[in-house]
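TASK: fixed-backbone design
INPUT:
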């Protein structure tokens, strides 16, 4: 069994989107929308309305001889049925 959902992406922009019912996750680059939808529904027990994906390619940053290389990643924007939420920050 492969791991499809890597981790949630938590930034200021994604917390604003979460108020609208859209959550952002890093996912496996080979995963398709149906696999992502099924995995989210199974893990969090919610109804997914829409899944949009973005492929971010490998990129080098830096001007000196030491370059920072960002690996190839895929993000999934998951829209839930109205009134449903995902608790990304569990109570401690």
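OUTPUT:
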């Amino acid at each position: 069994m492969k791991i499809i959902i890597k981790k949630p992406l938590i930034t200021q922009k994604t917390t604003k989107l979460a108020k609208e019912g859209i959550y952002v996750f890093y996912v496996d680059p080979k995963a398709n929308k149906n696999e992502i939808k099924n995995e989210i529904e199974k893990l969090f027990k919610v109804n997914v309305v829409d899944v949009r994906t973005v492929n971010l390619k490998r990129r080098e940053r830096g001007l000196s001889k030491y370059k920072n290389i960002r690996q190839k990643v895929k993000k999934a924007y998951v829209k839930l049925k109205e009134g449903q939420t995902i608790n990304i920050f569990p109570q401690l």
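COMMENT: The first strand starts at residue 5 and ends at 8.
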